[in-house]
Amino acid sequence: MESNNWSKEEMIAYILLFAANSNFIESNKERNIIISKVDMDTFQRIHDEFGQDNDYQSLQKIQNGLIQHNYTPEHIDQLLTEIKLLFYADGEFDHLEQHMFLYLKRIMRID
């Protein structure tokens, strides 16, 4: 599935999955947070797609999805807040997650 065909929920699930995998450990708590935002079918479909993509493809899909859904800086800030909450789900905001957060912050700024 190409990002230009994603619903807003699918895009959010993909971005959160990308963030959750930043430290190579997708915890049950992180998974549960993502599932609380989308239904199980959407989660599974996007999870399968995410598993087939490399980092470059993921970043392209994220940027394209934000553009497609006309995300404003305010929407991006809300999404970054959700990502930060996801990182704290396991009680720790480790080094890899901190670096990924800064990286996502930079690449999600669409001008």
Walk me through what this model shows:
The chain is an all-alpha fold. It has one domain (3-107). Helix content is 70%, strand content 0%. The chain has 6 helices and no strands. It has helices spanning 8-20, 28-37, 40-52, 55-68, 73-87, 95-107. The longest helix is centred in the last third of the chain and has 15 residues, at 73-87. It is globular, with a radius of gyration of 13 Å.
Structural Rg:
13 Å
pLDDT averaged residue by residue: 89
Sheet of most strands: none
Number of helices: 6
Q: Roughly how much helix do the residues carry, as a percent range?
A: over 70%
**How many structural domains are formed by the residues?**
1
**Uncertain runs:** none
Strand content: under 5%
Strand runs, count: 0
In terms of structural class, how would the helical and strand content be classed? mainly alpha
Order of SSEs = HHHHHH
N- to C-terminal distance: 25 Å
Q: Using the alpha-carbon principal axes, give the shape.
A: globular
Blueprint (SSEs and pairs):
Layout: H1 8-20, H2 28-37, H3 40-52, H4 55-68, H5 73-87, H6 95-107
Helix pairs in contact: 1-2, 1-3, 1-4, 1-5, 5-6
Observed structural traits:
about 110 residues, mainly alpha
Gist of the model:
70% of the residues lie in helices and 0% in strands. By secondary structure, the protein is mostly helical.
